[in-house]
Structures are given as C-alpha cells and as structure tokens.
Specification:
CATH superfamily of the largest domain: ACT domain
Number of helices: 39
CATH class of the largest domain: Alpha Beta
Largest sheet: 8 strands, antiparallel
Structural class: alpha+beta
Shape: globular
Number of strands: 16
Strand order of the largest sheet: 9-10-12-11-15-16-14-13
CATH topology of the largest domain: Alpha-Beta Plaits
Strand content: 5-15%
Length: 855
C-alpha cells in the first residue's frame, strides 16, 4: 500500500506543479520559458520514480526527441529510451515493466523504447526518425560516462551526407502533405511549411555536423547575419508560444490551429476585435509573419549547411552574363553588390532561374542579398520599362513559373512589385470554403492553370490541357490568375475592384492590346461561369444564349473556362468534384456551339436534342414509335431542361409505364462518375419533393442538382443527382438497389412528413456562423415562375426543411440547383404558387424560411 500511495502522491505532486507552472506563465506571449520548466519538472518526477526502483548505473534513462532537447509542451508525449546492458537479465526486464506501468499511473503520456546499444544502432540504420531522435538525447538517470560513450557511438555511425539527404526528402514529403502551402487558414504550427519542424530540421543537420543547434552559434560561423538570427529567434518564440497556448486551449496534444481554438486563443493573447480585423485574424497574422520568416531564412541555412557538407572544391563555375553565374547547378550573383548596383537584377534573377534548365537552386548568399535589396523595389523601379518587360517575360517562359512566383512571394518581391498583392498576403477568408489565405489561394490557382500547359499533367484534365495548348499567348491567363482575387479585403465587390487594378497593370506593361482587355475582363467575370453552371440550367437554350452574349467569342470563353476550373480547384481539395466538372464542360460546349452557329433558335435546339435521344433509343432496340405516347405527355420545357442522354434514359424506363399506379424509381451511376442519377416517376402530390429530400438526407446522401417536372397528365417526373459518401462508394450496385426499392416504398406509403432532427453543425459553422439570406424575385425571363435564392450554413436536413415549408405554403418547385461550397450552401429554386402574387404572403414566407435556417 505504501508504494501505491507514493505513486498517487507523486501523481498529485506532478499535477499540482504543472498547474502552478501554467499559472506562473499565464501570459501566452511570454510562455516560451515554460517549455524548459515543464521539462525540468518531468525530469525530477522521472528521477524520483527511477531512484525508488534502485536501478543499477549501467541502465540508463534517456530523454529523446523534443523532450531530449530539453523542452516539453503541455500535452506532448514524453519520449524516453531505456538503454539496457548488452545482456539484460529477466529480473531487470520485469522491474522495468513495473516502472513503465507506474509512469502511466502518474499520468505521464510516455512514448518509450527499451533497447541495447546494438539495438539502437540497428534501428537507426533502418529508420531516419530513430536516428534523429537519438541525436537529441539527454541522460536523465544512470552512469553519465556510459551515456557519453553512447552519444559518441551514435554520432560516429551518422553519415552527414546521407542524413542530410534523408532529412530533405522527409521535408519534401511533409510539405507535400500540406500542398506546399504556408498560409492555410487552419495551419499545423508544428508540421506545416514555415512551422516549428523546419527549425528542428536545421538543428538536426547542425547537430549531425557537430555544430550545435544554437542560432547564435550558427550566426557566429557566418551562416546567418545577426539580424537574421534575431528574426529567427523571434519567429521561433512566437511559434512556441502559439503552440503552448494551443495545447492549453485544446486541453490535449493538438498542433492544428483550428477555428475552434482561434477565438479563445486570441482572447488569451489579449487581442480584441476592431473595425479592420477580428481578434483571431490579428493572432493569425502573427503566426503567418513568423511562418514567413521561417520560410525565408531556413532555406538559407539549409543551403549553407549543404555547402559545408558537400565540398565545393572543383565545382565548375559557368558565367551566364556579367551579373549571374552557375556554380555547378546553383545560380548565384557574380559579385555581392549586383542588386545594389543594378536593382533590375532582382527580377532578372528569377527570369534567369526560369531560363536555365540546369539551375537546381539559388545560392544562399544570393537569396540573402536579394532579401536585403528588396527595398530597392519602389515607384521608380516599378515605372522602369526594363523592369516591366522583365516581369512580363517571367510569364512567357516554358517552365518554372509557379516555383518562381512562390519564391517571389516568399521573399517579399511579388508584394513589393505589385503593392496591391502585398495587401492580400496572409489575408484570411472566412467564407468556409477557402482553406487558404488569399495569396496562397491565388498561387494555387496560378499553379492549376500552369499545370494545364505541362505535358506531364495532361492526364489530369485532358480537355483543359487541349484548350490551353490552343490558347494564343497563355501568359494572359497566368496574369489573370495572379490578379483574380487581388481586390479582396478592400470593401465592395472584389471582382470589380480587381478589374480596375488589373487594367492599370495591363496598361502599364508590354502586353498585346487584345490581352490588355482580356485580362481585366477575366478578373471581373471570374465567378460568372461557376455561377451559371451551378445556379442556372446549363441545358436551357436561353441560358446558353445569355452566357454566350456575355463571353462574346471563343477566346473569352476558353479563358474563362480554364480560369474557372483552376479557381474552384484552388479553393479547397473538397470543393471540386466530377459533377461540377461536368456542368462546366457542358456549359462550355453548348456555348461554343452557339458561338459557332452565331444563332440557335429554340426549335433547332429542341429538334436536335430529340433527334439525338431517338438515335440513342434505337441503340437499345426500341421500335421507332415506342417513345411517342410518353413524349406526348411532355411539354417543351421538359425537352429544354434535359439533355438527350437523360431523355433517352427516362423514355426507356417509362414508355411502357405511362399510367402506372406504382411509383417508379430508377437509379444509375452518374455519367460524371461520381454519385448517382435518380429518376422518380409517380402521381404528383404536394409534398413529394420534401419526401424525397428527407429520404436522401436520412440515408446520408447529398443532393446537388434536381430537375422537377410535371407531365401533362399529372405525373411527377423528377431527376436527382446525388453524392454518395466516400465510405459507401465501393458498393454502387447495392446502393442502386437500395435506393430504387426503399425510395419507391416510402413514396407509396405517403407517411406524414416528420420534422428533421436537430442538425449537427460543423465546428467551422459553430465559430464562424453564416447569416442566412432568403430572397424571392421574379424570373429574369418573365413568365409565371419566381426564383428563390437561399444562402445558409450547410447541415443535415437543410433541404428537406426548405422543401417542407414550401409544401406547407403550396409552393411548387420546378427545378432546384443545390450548390455546396465547403460549409456554405447556396441553393436556387425555380418556384410557382398562388401566394407568390401576394406581397404580404411572400414576406411571411421569407420570414418562415429565415427562422428555420437560423443556426
């Protein structure tokens, strides 16, 4: 009982001391010393427990990893190595098992390994992570001389060249997991580019070389200037303090600065909302600044360490011009004062790097000189015709544009040359579908457009690649991508603001006259094609004619299509899907056809669509007149709202069931390859749409498009496009059978509609709620229909809630366009109903919908 009580007492003492340290370092901005204090507290706790067991001196308790560096975050794992004698006896192993169990009893989150020296060396040989952890080892208990011998042995077995290459490959893989993006809205403070792990990387490589991992030491060796050393130390302190507070706020080991934590953390740091920025944005601005400094300066150190590891003796120097030369595969300035004497060389550096296929990197001293010379980019620099030509030439090179633009942004050159771009660097977007800051998103879009032009990526989007290959002067698209969101954060419509900024830029730079008009036009209209595809009926000839009149010609159409695809793909990995790709491509091809014909009467569209549907029906062996009785019940609107393939599918399923008393439900894999296409045919009832929505929502399926049609003889003929969760996609055959059987049964039963359960909100919506918006307006084309537009936070049951309210008010839905952007729903319905002619009733309906949409 005494041992048990002592363990309990030790647990209580450790918890009390940890809480005291939390109180002592309660100011998050000054919390960095807490790391050492927590490590020392843990050292003492482990030492006391170790001594109680009376282990022999040849058994070592060693701290490794981050704990081995002498720093411990509030809820980080405590990484331990128990170093055994070469021949451990069974009694020792049993004693160690008890010791490890007591570590958990004390409440320590321990990651441990129990090994001999030979075991350690063998594991380090196989796993670079183990080798790295051993570099950061600290003796806690046991014979110090044996530990010193252990350290010496570990270091002797490290090959600095192999270690360096392995850690750089590890970094590349880590960056790839984060899409090489420094400025995500919910960044990982430890692992993301510009995070703490990049600083650790320098320490590991320096330690492998026996240089230590102190910034002052590295500066004393000439690898950093004093100013750079101070900047890195400040950035490291900011990142550490943010990670410490993140742990306290989450009350667990958490390295992602999620929206859930940004507001409370900002309050803890003392930030308050002001007219320009939320408190959370002010906190994240400090994170982005620190991450940017790390991203700027650690590559200099990596390259300096590479030079130290890999001998430069005998490396061939190749002059390129009087300002630049290649030292092996590394581009460098030919003398230290190049940028000071000729500021235009700042832009020329990036152009030469693009043009030289053999240039693998830029020398650290050149980047350092660039960093210190960036202030030379002023109004006079921007007005220099040579510099304007150099900047445009960057967009005309066959390779390297994306890499160059990222470098220019990383070192502050891009934001200085285009001051308006500097204002969007690190700017957050709380629209709940962008996952990057504005500048990071912009560079993602530029990358996406550029990939269309690279042969190695043709397989990703063959249609886009073909269009770009045929697009004269593609630099116009790249520049439009760079400017498309540059107006954000200024108040007002960012597309129109961006148009003016882009127009000024184009008028000042050496561009083709046609492109000087095209680029601002693309910036102004970069959201239009997406809106048409996702909110309008892309199979309606009048919609196509309206869109064709907007774009005017093939070049504008192709440019807008390519920019739109790149833009949607650059918002978030979750926003783009095959259905959106199909809608955009169908809109492009229909518009292209209209532009080619110059005019396309509705009757011509109708005849062509019906002829194509009949051709498809003949492939299935139907007699020539099999369709007639069914088509007699369909009006012109049906044929204009459905493409030929869908008309043929409906006809095959229904030509023999025109007057059925039993609901017909048919489903098939969508032609987009993602989700199901579902047809429902049954006698029409007022709340049918709401019932169908409720069925899909209960099953966990998302509706992203719906065509609602009523035949001449009173049957509902509805088409739904349904997205299936990833974990259910392997069993499409079973899903089709389930939907066809269960939905038909539910419609046939006509059970009373039940109110949807309480929706579970995403964590993003909890912290950044979307104010619902409801608007009912006349259809632009006139007629008996109204357009209901709804914007709200997306959640389960949203669509059936809307449909239920409309059904109660005897509102008929003619079509539904369901657009989900991350956590944001933007839905549009074409509706009709008697109450829509009563202004007071319409206001009441809008109020009911708003009340139901409130989170």
């Amino acid at each position: 009982m005494t041992a048990l009580r002592s363990v309990i007492a030790l647990r209580e003492h450790h918890a009390a001391q940890k809480a005291e340290l939390h109180r002592k370092f309660s100011d998050p901005a000054k919390a960095a010393p807490l790391l050492q204090a927590l490590a020392h507290l843990t050292d003492r706790t482990l030492g006391e427990l170790w001594d109680r067991h009376g282990f022999a001196g040849d058994v070592l308790l060693v701290a490794v990893g981050g704990y081995g560096r002498g720093e411990l975050y509030p809820f980080s794992d405590i990484d331990l190595l128990i170093l055994l004698p070469d021949q451990p006896d069974p009694a020792l192993l049993e004693k160690l098992e008890v010791f490890i169990g007591e570590l958990w009893d004390i409440g320590l989150e321990v990651g441990h390994s129990v090994r001999t020296l030979s075991d350690c060396l063998a594991e380090a040989e196989k796993d670079i992570t183990v080798q790295t952890a051993l570099l950061e080892s600290r003796c806690l208990c046991g014979d110090r001389q044996r530990f010193a011998d252990f350290r010496d042995t570990v270091y002797r077995h490290i090959d600095p060249k192999e270690f360096f290459d392995a850690k750089l490959l590890e970094q590349q893989a880590r960056y790839a997991r984060f899409q090489n993006a420094t400025y995500k809205l919910e960044p990982n403070v430890k692992e993301a580019p510009g995070g703490l792990r990049d600083l650790h990387l320098i320490g590991w490589i320096a330690s492998a070389l026996g240089l230590g991992n102190n910034w002052r030491k590295l500066a004393a060796m000439g690898m950093l200037t004093h100013e750079e050393s101070q900047k890195l130390r400040r950035a490291e302190r900011v990142l550490r303090c943010i990670r410490i507070q993140l742990h306290w706020t989450a009350k667990r080991h958490e390295d992602r600065i999620l929206f859930d934590y940004q507001n409370p953390m900002a309050a803890d740091f003392g930030y308050v909302d002001n007219q320009k920025q939320r408190a959370s944005e002010q906190l994240m601005a400090q994170y982005y600044l620190a991450a940017r400094i790390v991203s700027q300066l650690t590559p200099l150190l990596v390259r300096a360490l590479r030079t130290r590891i890999f001998s430069q003796i005998g490396v061939e120097v190749t002059p390129l011009n009087e300002r630049f030369q290649l030292r092996g595969p590394v581009l460098e300035i030919s003398r230290p004062d190049v940028f000071q004497q000729d500021p235009s060389a700042i832009l020329e550096l990036f152009l030469v790097f693009e043009q030289e296929n053999y240039a693998a990197d830029i020398a650290p001293e050149t980047l350092r000189a660039l960093w210190h010379a960036r202030a030379r980019i002023d109004d006079e620099f921007r007005a220099n015709p040579r510099n304007r030509q150099l900047f445009i030439d960057l967009f005309r090179q066959p390779a390297g544009l994306t890499r160059i633009m990222r470098r220019m942004n990383q070192y502050g050159v891009l934001g200085r040359y285009i001051p308006e771009f500097g204002k969007i660097v690190g700017r957050m977007q709380h629209d709940l579908f962008h996952v990057y800051t504005v500048d990071e998103h912009t560079l993602m879009v530029l990358r996406n457009v550029r990939r269309f032009a690279i042969a190695a990526f043709t397989h990703e989007y063959p249609f886009c690649s073909r269009l770009l290959a045929e697009f004269a002067r593609p630099e116009a698209l790249y520049i439009a991508a760079l400017f498309h969101d540059i107006g954000k954060g200024r108040g007002g419509d960012h597309s129109e603001l961006g148009e003016h900024i882009a127009a000024d830029f184009c008028n000042e730079h050496p561009l083709d006259p046609e492109d000087r008009k095209l680029i601002p036009w693309l910036v102004k209209h970069h959201l239009v094609m997406s809106s048409f595809a996702q909110k309008r009926d892309v199979y309606d000839p009048e919609v196509i004619e309206e869109f064709a009149n907007l774009v005017g010609d093939q070049r504008h159409l192709a440019g807008l299509y390519l920019l739109t695809v790149a833009d949607i793909r650059g918002t978030s990995p979750k926003v783009w899907n095959a259905w959106k790709a199909k809608l955009l491509e169908d809109l492009y091809k229909a518009t292209q056809r209209f532009l080619s014909a110059r005019s396309m009467p509705v009757q011509s569209w109708l005849e062509d669509r019906q002829a194509e549907a009949l051709r498809l029906l003949r492939l299935y062996g139907l007699r020539d007149d099999a369709h007639q009785a069914f088509w007699d019940q369909l009006d012109t609107i049906y044929f204009l709202r459905h493409d030929a393939r869908e008309i043929a599918w409906h006809t095959r399923q229904l030509f023999a069931r025109i007057d059925t008393d039993v609901p017909v439900v048919r489903a098939k894999l969508s032609e987009s390859g993602e989700g199901l296409q579902v047809m429902v045919y049954t006698k029409d009832v007022a709340d049918l749409f709401a019932r169908i929505c409720a069925f899909f929502e209960k099953a966990g399926y998302s509706i992203f498009d719906a065509h609602i049609h009523t035949t001449r003889h009173g049957y509902a003929l509805d088409s739904f496009y349904v997205y299936i969760p990833d974990h259910q996609k392997d069993g499409y055959r079973d899903l089709i059978g389930y939907v066809e059987y269960e939905l038909a049964n539910q419609i046939a039963r006509q059970a009373p509609l039940t109110a949807p359960g309480k929706a579970r909100l995403s964590r993003q919506l909890k912290h950044f709620p979307i104010q619902p918006r409801v608007e009912i307006s006349a259809d632009e084309r006139g007629g008996k229909y109204q357009v209901l537009s709804i914007t709200a936070g997306d959640r389960t049951g949203l669509l059936s809630t809307i449909a239920g309210i409309l059904a109660l008010n005897r509102i008929e839905i003619q079509s539904a366009k369901i657009m989900t952007l991350g956590e944001r729903a933007e839905d549009n319905f074409l509706i009709s109903g008697q109450i829509l002619s009563d202004e007071r009733a319409v206001r009441h309906l809008e109020g009911d919908l708003l009340a139901a949409l409130q989170l």
